[in-house]
Amino acid sequence: MKILVIIPAYNEEKSITGVVGQIKLNIPEADILVVNDGSNDATPQKASEAGARVINLPFNLGIGGAMQTGYLYAKYNNYDIAVQVDGDGQHNPIYIHNLMELIIQGSADMVIGSRFIKKTSYTPSSARKAGMLFFSALIKLLTNQRVKDTTSGFRVVNKKIIEYFSLHYPVDYPEVDVLVKLYKKGFRVMEMPVEMQERKTGKSSITPLRSIYYMIKVTISLLIESLKTIEQ
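^ thats the sequence. predicted structure below, dont judge the formating
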Protein backbone atom coordinates (compact mmCIF):
# COMPACT_ATOMS: atom_id res chain seq x y z
CA MET A 1 0.00 0.00 0.00
CA LYS A 2 1.50 3.33 -1.10
CA ILE A 3 1.15 6.20 1.37
CA LEU A 4 1.90 9.85 0.66
CA VAL A 5 2.07 12.56 3.32
CA ILE A 6 1.38 15.96 1.75
CA ILE A 7 2.66 19.06 3.54
CA PRO A 8 1.62 22.43 2.08
CA ALA A 9 4.23 24.93 3.27
CA TYR A 10 4.65 28.68 2.99
CA ASN A 11 7.65 30.22 4.77
CA GLU A 12 8.02 27.35 7.26
CA GLU A 13 11.84 27.18 7.25
CA LYS A 14 12.00 27.14 11.07
CA SER A 15 9.59 24.23 11.50
CA ILE A 16 9.69 22.10 8.34
CA THR A 17 12.80 20.11 9.30
CA GLY A 18 11.18 18.97 12.55
CA VAL A 19 7.85 18.19 10.87
CA VAL A 20 9.47 16.01 8.20
CA GLY A 21 11.67 14.31 10.80
CA GLN A 22 8.70 13.47 13.05
CA ILE A 23 6.76 11.99 10.12
CA LYS A 24 9.75 9.85 9.07
CA LEU A 25 10.08 8.64 12.66
CA ASN A 26 6.39 7.74 13.11
CA ILE A 27 5.49 6.50 9.63
CA PRO A 28 8.72 5.45 7.89
CA GLU A 29 6.84 3.53 5.20
CA ALA A 30 5.33 6.74 3.78
CA ASP A 31 6.69 9.07 1.15
CA ILE A 32 6.72 12.74 2.14
CA LEU A 33 5.89 15.53 -0.29
CA VAL A 34 6.36 19.17 0.63
CA VAL A 35 4.49 21.53 -1.69
CA ASN A 36 6.44 24.75 -1.35
CA ASP A 37 3.78 27.40 -1.95
CA GLY A 38 6.02 30.19 -3.22
CA SER A 39 8.03 30.64 -0.02
CA ASN A 40 10.63 33.40 0.04
CA ASP A 41 12.69 31.73 2.74
CA ALA A 42 14.65 28.47 2.89
CA THR A 43 11.61 26.17 3.24
CA PRO A 44 12.31 24.07 0.11
CA GLN A 45 16.01 23.62 0.92
CA LYS A 46 15.26 22.62 4.53
CA ALA A 47 12.55 20.20 3.42
CA SER A 48 14.80 18.56 0.85
CA GLU A 49 17.68 18.25 3.32
CA ALA A 50 15.29 16.60 5.80
CA GLY A 51 14.46 13.93 3.23
CA ALA A 52 11.18 15.12 1.67
CA ARG A 53 10.36 15.35 -1.99
CA VAL A 54 9.67 18.98 -2.88
CA ILE A 55 7.47 20.60 -5.49
CA ASN A 56 8.14 24.31 -5.89
CA LEU A 57 5.15 26.37 -6.98
CA PRO A 58 6.25 29.47 -8.93
CA PHE A 59 4.22 31.80 -6.71
CA ASN A 60 1.90 31.63 -3.71
CA LEU A 61 -1.35 29.87 -4.72
CA GLY A 62 -2.80 29.50 -1.23
CA ILE A 63 -3.72 26.33 0.61
CA GLY A 64 -6.20 25.12 -2.02
CA GLY A 65 -3.73 25.32 -4.91
CA ALA A 66 -0.97 23.73 -2.85
CA MET A 67 -3.16 20.83 -1.72
CA GLN A 68 -4.55 20.14 -5.18
CA THR A 69 -0.97 20.00 -6.45
CA GLY A 70 -0.28 17.36 -3.83
CA TYR A 71 -3.36 15.35 -4.79
CA LEU A 72 -2.43 15.51 -8.46
CA TYR A 73 1.00 14.15 -7.55
CA ALA A 74 -0.67 11.38 -5.52
CA LYS A 75 -2.99 10.46 -8.39
CA TYR A 76 -0.34 10.32 -11.10
CA ASN A 77 2.03 8.33 -8.88
CA ASN A 78 -0.71 5.84 -7.95
CA TYR A 79 -0.83 6.34 -4.17
CA ASP A 80 -3.50 4.46 -2.19
CA ILE A 81 -3.65 6.84 0.80
CA ALA A 82 -2.89 10.54 1.15
CA VAL A 83 -2.33 12.26 4.49
CA GLN A 84 -2.59 16.03 4.89
CA VAL A 85 -0.31 17.54 7.55
CA ASP A 86 0.37 21.24 8.18
CA GLY A 87 3.94 22.49 7.97
CA ASP A 88 3.82 24.44 11.23
CA GLY A 89 4.08 21.41 13.53
CA GLN A 90 0.57 21.51 15.00
CA HIS A 91 -0.38 18.06 13.66
CA ASN A 92 1.30 15.29 15.64
CA PRO A 93 2.28 12.42 13.28
CA ILE A 94 1.92 9.95 16.13
CA TYR A 95 -1.82 9.84 15.26
CA ILE A 96 -1.43 9.08 11.55
CA HIS A 97 -1.60 5.29 11.91
CA ASN A 98 -4.82 5.59 13.93
CA LEU A 99 -6.36 7.88 11.34
CA MET A 100 -5.34 5.54 8.51
CA GLU A 101 -6.83 2.49 10.18
CA LEU A 102 -10.43 3.35 9.25
CA ILE A 103 -9.32 3.93 5.65
CA ILE A 104 -7.48 0.60 5.50
CA GLN A 105 -10.49 -1.20 6.99
CA GLY A 106 -12.71 0.34 4.33
CA SER A 107 -14.93 2.02 6.94
CA ALA A 108 -14.35 5.59 5.70
CA ASP A 109 -13.20 7.54 2.65
CA MET A 110 -11.86 10.45 4.72
CA VAL A 111 -10.86 10.57 8.39
CA ILE A 112 -10.40 13.93 10.14
CA GLY A 113 -8.14 14.42 13.14
CA SER A 114 -10.59 16.18 15.44
CA ARG A 115 -10.03 18.37 18.51
CA PHE A 116 -13.64 18.16 19.63
CA ILE A 117 -14.68 14.49 19.65
CA LYS A 118 -13.57 14.37 23.25
CA LYS A 119 -11.99 16.90 25.59
CA THR A 120 -8.41 17.81 24.69
CA SER A 121 -5.96 20.47 25.80
CA TYR A 122 -6.90 22.64 22.80
CA THR A 123 -8.84 25.76 23.80
CA PRO A 124 -9.99 27.95 20.91
CA SER A 125 -10.56 31.68 21.25
CA SER A 126 -14.17 32.79 21.62
CA ALA A 127 -14.24 34.08 18.04
CA ARG A 128 -12.80 30.88 16.62
CA LYS A 129 -15.14 28.74 18.69
CA ALA A 130 -18.12 30.73 17.41
CA GLY A 131 -16.91 30.24 13.84
CA MET A 132 -16.51 26.51 14.30
CA LEU A 133 -20.00 26.17 15.77
CA PHE A 134 -21.40 28.23 12.91
CA PHE A 135 -19.78 26.06 10.24
CA SER A 136 -20.79 22.87 12.01
CA ALA A 137 -24.41 24.08 11.99
CA LEU A 138 -24.16 25.18 8.34
CA ILE A 139 -22.85 21.76 7.25
CA LYS A 140 -25.63 20.11 9.22
CA LEU A 141 -28.17 22.33 7.45
CA LEU A 142 -26.80 21.64 3.97
CA THR A 143 -25.95 17.94 4.28
CA ASN A 144 -27.74 16.64 7.39
CA GLN A 145 -24.32 15.47 8.63
CA ARG A 146 -22.60 16.53 11.85
CA VAL A 147 -18.90 17.45 11.81
CA LYS A 148 -17.45 18.80 15.05
CA ASP A 149 -14.04 19.96 13.82
CA THR A 150 -14.84 21.54 10.46
CA THR A 151 -11.56 23.43 10.09
CA SER A 152 -9.05 20.75 11.00
CA GLY A 153 -6.51 20.30 8.21
CA PHE A 154 -5.26 17.01 9.67
CA ARG A 155 -6.93 14.57 7.26
CA VAL A 156 -6.42 11.16 5.67
CA VAL A 157 -8.14 10.10 2.44
CA ASN A 158 -8.35 7.01 0.26
CA LYS A 159 -7.73 6.55 -3.42
CA LYS A 160 -11.26 7.53 -4.47
CA ILE A 161 -10.92 10.92 -2.81
CA ILE A 162 -7.40 11.39 -4.17
CA GLU A 163 -8.96 11.04 -7.61
CA TYR A 164 -11.81 13.42 -6.74
CA PHE A 165 -9.56 16.07 -5.17
CA SER A 166 -7.21 15.99 -8.14
CA LEU A 167 -10.14 17.28 -10.20
CA HIS A 168 -12.15 19.30 -7.66
CA TYR A 169 -10.58 21.36 -4.88
CA PRO A 170 -11.53 24.86 -3.71
CA VAL A 171 -8.95 27.57 -4.30
CA ASP A 172 -8.84 29.03 -0.80
CA TYR A 173 -10.25 28.30 2.66
CA PRO A 174 -11.09 24.76 1.48
CA GLU A 175 -11.55 22.81 4.72
CA VAL A 176 -15.28 23.47 5.15
CA ASP A 177 -16.09 23.61 1.44
CA VAL A 178 -14.68 20.16 0.68
CA LEU A 179 -16.73 18.58 3.45
CA VAL A 180 -19.97 19.71 1.83
CA LYS A 181 -18.76 18.52 -1.58
CA LEU A 182 -17.80 15.10 -0.23
CA TYR A 183 -21.10 14.58 1.57
CA LYS A 184 -23.08 15.59 -1.50
CA LYS A 185 -21.09 13.06 -3.54
CA GLY A 186 -21.82 10.32 -1.04
CA PHE A 187 -18.32 9.92 0.40
CA ARG A 188 -18.03 8.65 3.97
CA VAL A 189 -16.34 11.11 6.35
CA MET A 190 -15.47 10.26 9.95
CA GLU A 191 -13.68 12.02 12.81
CA MET A 192 -11.18 10.63 15.31
CA PRO A 193 -9.88 12.45 18.40
CA VAL A 194 -6.35 13.89 18.34
CA GLU A 195 -4.35 16.29 20.46
CA MET A 196 -3.02 19.23 18.49
CA GLN A 197 0.44 20.56 19.32
CA GLU A 198 1.28 24.22 19.83
CA ARG A 199 2.55 25.97 16.72
CA LYS A 200 6.35 25.64 16.81
CA THR A 201 7.27 28.92 15.14
CA GLY A 202 5.69 31.97 13.54
CA LYS A 203 2.05 32.91 13.98
CA SER A 204 -1.26 32.07 12.37
CA SER A 205 -2.38 34.13 9.40
CA ILE A 206 -5.96 33.96 10.71
CA THR A 207 -6.76 37.35 12.28
CA PRO A 208 -10.20 38.45 13.54
CA LEU A 209 -10.84 40.41 10.34
CA ARG A 210 -9.70 37.50 8.19
CA SER A 211 -11.99 35.21 10.20
CA ILE A 212 -15.00 37.37 9.43
CA TYR A 213 -14.05 37.54 5.76
CA TYR A 214 -13.54 33.76 5.77
CA MET A 215 -16.96 33.08 7.27
CA ILE A 216 -18.79 35.36 4.84
CA LYS A 217 -16.94 34.07 1.76
CA VAL A 218 -17.29 30.39 2.62
CA THR A 219 -20.96 30.77 3.55
CA ILE A 220 -21.80 32.47 0.25
CA SER A 221 -19.80 29.84 -1.65
CA LEU A 222 -21.57 26.98 0.09
CA LEU A 223 -25.03 28.45 -0.41
CA ILE A 224 -24.38 29.00 -4.12
CA GLU A 225 -23.01 25.48 -4.49
CA SER A 226 -26.03 24.07 -2.72
CA LEU A 227 -28.26 25.55 -5.42
CA LYS A 228 -26.44 23.69 -8.17
CA THR A 229 -27.79 20.30 -9.08
CA ILE A 230 -24.94 19.25 -11.37
CA GLU A 231 -21.28 19.94 -10.61
CA GLN A 232 -19.33 21.13 -13.61
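The first strand starts at residue 3 and ends at 9.
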